[in-house]
Task: inverse folding
């Protein structure tokens, strides 16, 4: 899992919080990163927001965009190496 000091998930986070972390592969490069439970929760939140936004985002589009960007920022600060591997 992440070797960095784990940042707690932000108060605005309303996604699913996992009990365990896991290994995630970049869908384009195949490179992998080990994520803590918090990081994996945020990663799935970010990827879910991408899917929703790809379909337009509906009435909550602006809120989803804001939370997506806040999630990206949190992930980048929490685990820069995994961010570069999975989301950059």
Result:
């Amino acid at each position: 899992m992440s070797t960095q000091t784990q940042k707690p998930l932000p108060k605005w986070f309303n996604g699913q919080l996992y009990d365990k972390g896991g290994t995630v592969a970049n869908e384009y490069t195949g490179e992998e990163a080990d994520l803590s439970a918090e990081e994996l929760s945020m990663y799935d939140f970010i990827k879910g927001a991408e899917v929703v936004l790809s379909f337009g985002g509906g009435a909550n589009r602006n809120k989803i965009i804001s939370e997506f960007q806040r999630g990206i920022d949190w992930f980048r600060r929490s685990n820069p190496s995994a961010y570069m591997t999975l989301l950059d």
Summary: Strands lie at 22-25, 32-35. The longest helix spans residues 37-54.
